[in-house]
Design brief:
Elements: E1 3-7, H1 13-23, H2 31-39, E2 48-54, E3 57-66, E4 75-82, H3 91-105, E5 110-116, H4 119-127, E6 131-142, E7 158-162, H5 171-182, H6 195-203, E8 214-218, E9 221-230, E10 235-243, H7 252-266, E11 271-277, H8 281-290, E12 293-304
Parallel strand pairs: 4-5, 10-11
Antiparallel strand pairs: 1-2, 2-3, 3-4, 5-12, 6-11, 6-12, 7-8, 8-9, 9-10
Helix pairs in contact: 1-2
Length: 305
């Protein structure tokens, strides 16, 4: 049996989604999402999608690119996924090597990659020269059977709105997202400063659910939000929950996330997921209050090219 790696084609979207959903079920993955990401990638990102085939069947995927929104140049990223039960055939190694060669040509000097906190995945990364850095926890909440905290009273001077209420002018949400993202713990600093790119890749993204995104206004200004991504069926993902600096310490992140979760359950979603840096104590505490439990842990690795 021969394994080959080639570039992704639009006809691969369904198979790509199956690999992603099986390998990382706590992430939202749809064919529409991967096709949108490919079509709207920024040129400076040098975004490339790869698939690994064995006897004509797709058994692995990888996406690679340059972190073009970081003020520090030369930072590449890649994460290969191989179907459980189809590992140890060379697919992951070939995907990774092909992606590294692409990133090197694109100007990357370092490559970041996530690996599951399992002996097999950590050993795979270590054997290829990747060094462990920070960890992140995936957490799951059973929306179908698990209880949610009751809806909170909205404090005086605060108004809860939907993301879809900003359809005429989403720029206030972009500005809030940029400020919150800049403060998020990460190995790669991100500066969101391209509004048109944000519109294409966040606001109009097929997984982004404007109607389940909750926003807290204080005196008419966006103070906090909880952005929702869904697969349109049963999986709900908290894509980003945060509060702008001037409004922190008031419980607004908890308020918006609680509102979004209640509406997600009412809409029929059964599985809620979220992910947080292991050092992000405040957000982990909020998720524990909601009843989330850790379902997996990833370790970010880095290799100098």
């Amino acid at each position: 049996m021969t394994v080959i790696v080639r570039d992704f084609q639009p006809s691969d979207a369904e198979a790509w989604t199956r690999v992603r959903r099986t390998s990382v079920p706590w992430m939202v993955a749809t064919p529409e999402q991967i096709l949108h990401d490919r079509a709207h990638a920024h040129p400076a990102q040098h975004y490339r999608l790869l698939v690994a085939e064995e006897d004509g069947a797709i058994i692995g995927t990888a996406q690679a690119g340059i972190a073009h929104e970081s003020p520090e140049p030369g930072q590449g990223f890649v994460t290969p996924h191989t179907l459980p039960g189809r590992t140890r055939r060379g697919a992951g190694a070939l995907l990774l090597r092909t992606a590294e060669e692409h990133l090197c040509r694109a100007g990357a000097t370092v490559v970041y990659a996530w690996a599951l906190d399992t002996p097999e995945s950590l050993g795979f990364a270590r054997a290829r020269g990747y060094l462990p850095r920070r960890s992140a926890h995936f957490q799951r909440l059973d929306l179908a059977r698990g209880p949610l905290p009751p809806r909170q009273d909205v404090p005086a001077g605060v108004e809860l709105r939907l993301g879809s209420d900003f359809a005429g002018d989403p720029r206030p949400l972009f500005e809030a997202d940029a400020e919150v993202t800049a403060d998020e713990p990460s190995d790669i600093t991100t500066a969101l400063d391209d509004y048109e790119h944000w519109l294409a890749n966040t606001w109009r993204h097929p997984a982004y659910d404007q109607g389940l995104t909750s926003v807290a206004l204080v005196d008419g200004e966006v103070a906090a939000f909880s952005a929702a991504s869904t697969d349109g069926q049963r999986t709900y993902l908290s894509a980003m929950t945060g509060t702008r600096r001037a409004f922190r310490g008031r419980g607004l992140a908890k308020l918006t996330k609680n509102d979004s979760l209640h509406r997600a359950r009412a809409a029929g979603y059964t599985d809620a997921y979220t992910s947080n840096d292991a050092g992000n104590g405040p957000m982990l505490a909020i998720n524990d209050w909601f009843g989330y439990t850790i379902c997996a842990t990833e370790v970010r690795h880095v290799r100098t090219l």
